[in-house]
Amino acid sequence: MADGKVLIIGGGVAGLSAALGLARLGLEVQIVEKKSFLGGHAIRFSCKATDRCVKCGACRVEETLKNVTNNPKIKVWTETRVINVSKANTFTIHLSKRPEYINPRKCTRCGACFDQCPESGALIQGYSKYNFPFVAICEENCSFMQDRSCCICQEICPEAAIQLDGNSQQKVYLADAIIIATGFQPFNPESKPYGYNSFPNVITNLQLEEMLKRESIVLRPSDNTIPKKIAFIQCVGSRDAKLNHLWCSKVCCASALRLARLIKSRQPEIEISFFYIDVQTFGRDFQAFYAAVQNEVRMIRNIPGDIYQTEDKRLQVNFYDAALSITQEEIFDMVALSIGITPSSELNKMVELFELRLDETGFAFGSGEAQWFSVPGVYTAGTASGPMSIAETVASASQAVTAVAKLLRQKAG
Ligand SMILES: Cc1cc2nc3c(=O)[nH]c(=O)nc-3n(C[C@H](O)[C@H](O)[C@H](O)COP(=O)(O)OP(=O)(O)OC[C@H]3O[C@@H](n4cnc5c(N)ncnc54)[C@H](O)[C@@H]3O)c2cc1C
């Protein structure tokens, strides 16, 4: 393979998979990730295997992250953003990196900083053991960043890995090609009449994923007790004419049903109801899975109108029961909202930087090809182009890798 340098913007599954594909071709790759940790949304997902693997893809993300972390051809810049790009023969990319408050090469993950920090959320840790760095400072919650009133973590760190008065760094990088893998934005359900962010026991399925990954079981957020009844509500922010979000997010039905089944396998005493418009089933194995899940989960073909909170923080869900032709008011202990995949606001920055074109839904046009940009050598991968599963994201990253390889071969003559 010809020589070449590629910059990838976004370190989710798309960016990580593209990086590995390019590194395997012998190319030098830099990943720029705006957050503290690599892995994007999917690194928070729990493995949903019950008695067998249900092909949710969560382990694939961990595996990809591990391979990226160990690959000497791939350099990672976390907490970094592209601030400017110019193109002559190659791209000249100006990067801005926030201070590295915790040196990942010195940190041994001993946990002393977490034990002593008086501020909730000031220290955060990655979702995977393969995250490098594994611990980071959240500037918004850290008192040192506000008024320099506390530096306990720096004082007690046995490895002297913490330096709270670090400086931002500006870097310039030259690349032959760029892959935009800035991903998606989960729909914010605050505008829906479900009490999200007002009622503690209404959570999103992304939060439920995180809970199952960290705790293995479901607990009611308001009091950490085991819920007796959970309702899943599908299509929150998808297929919604009022929001002008007419697209199906494609992954939510399968993902929520797998979560429901995982909960039933670990906490069989919990009753689960599943409110849906129609179930989008994909893949050969999913039909058999869906048949089995219907024996364990109560399926209700209706999307509830509203939710009210009772005095004991339980939730009254109002819905139309088509089987009985009546409106029902039923009490649940917890509600999980299946929020949809929406275009990331980061795409607007990509429009400014690269003259990226968006389609009428606000996602980028397709993956892999250069013709959608006025600047040749720029490609997209993953959910920046629209809703897709982890497997589809990996496939779209391969398309981008193929397009980059073709470009570099042409350049080399
Ligand atoms: C509720 C829910 C459940 C799901 N469940 C499943 C499932 O069970 N199975 C499945 O196959 N799929 C599932 N999916 C889909 C899955 O999440 C996606 O396929 C996958 O996360 C897409 O990866 P990505 O890299 O395209 O995007 P993302 O995961 O969004 O990653 C994008 C990355 O880019 C970074 N970034 C963004 N902008 C910038 C910038 N300007 N500079 C630097 N970095 C930037 C972000 O911080 C992020 O790390 C689910 C999705 C949702 C919403």
Discrete helix count = 10
Derived structural class: alpha/beta
Order of helices and strands: EHEHEEEHEEHHEEEEHEHEHEEEEEEHEH
- The CATH superfamily name of the largest domain is FAD/NAD(P)-binding domain
Helix content: 25-40%
Mean pLDDT, all residues? 93
What is the subunit arrangement here? single chain
Q: Give the CATH level 1 class of the largest domain.
A: Alpha Beta
CATH T-level topology of the largest domain: FAD/NAD(P)-binding domain
What fraction strand? 15-25%
- The separation of the N and C termini measures 12 Å
What are the low-pLDDT stretches, counting only 5+ consecutive residues below 50?
none
Q: What's the β-strand tally? A: 20
Please give the order of strands in the largest beta sheet: 3-2-1-9-20
Number of domains: 2
Largest sheet: 5 strands, parallel
Tell the overall outline: globular
